[in-house]
Amino acid sequence: MPDQARLLQVRLRGSAPAGSTVSWRVDRGRHDGGASVQVINDAAFTGAPFDRVASAAAEPPVDNSTTYYLLTVLVNGLGVQTDIYGGSIRYVP
């Protein structure tokens, strides 16, 4: 994202085995080691093909010299093999 843009939405697409659960989150971290802030948390949902869009509420303008965004995806199930094959972000310049 360019400096001073504001994050609006994150989209995640993929496939997970039936019977598994998938959850994901986006955190805004600080390069100086300060505390990170959870921006998006999409609660666990059942596997299989998925296309999820989640909105970020009132994110401040980004300053790439001091902050970054981190996407974390968690999949639970036996013998789970998951494919994350797409994603995108929407932001306001």
Characterization of this structure:
There is one protein chain. With 93 residues, this protein is an all-beta fold. The protein has one domain. Strands 1, 2, 3 and 4 form a 4-stranded antiparallel sheet that branches. Strand 1 and strand 2 form a beta hairpin.
Write the SSE topology.
Blueprint: E1 6-30, E2 37-55, E3 67-76, E4 83-92
Antiparallel strand pairs: 1-2, 1-3, 1-4
Q: What would the keywords be for this entry?
A:
93 residues, mainly beta, 4-stranded antiparallel sheet, 4 strands, elongated
Quick synopsis:
The chain is mostly beta strands and 93 residues long. The protein is built from no helices and 4 strands.
Number of strands: 4
- Mean of residue pLDDT values: 90
Radius of gyration, in Å, reads 14 Å
Structural class call reads mainly beta
Percent helix range: under 10%
Residue fraction in strands: over 45%
Number of domains: 1
| Helix and strand pattern | EEEE
Report the major sheet.
4 strands, antiparallel
Distance between the termini: 9 Å
Low-confidence stretches: none
- Report the principal-axis shape: elongated
Question: Tally the helices: what do you get?
Answer: 0
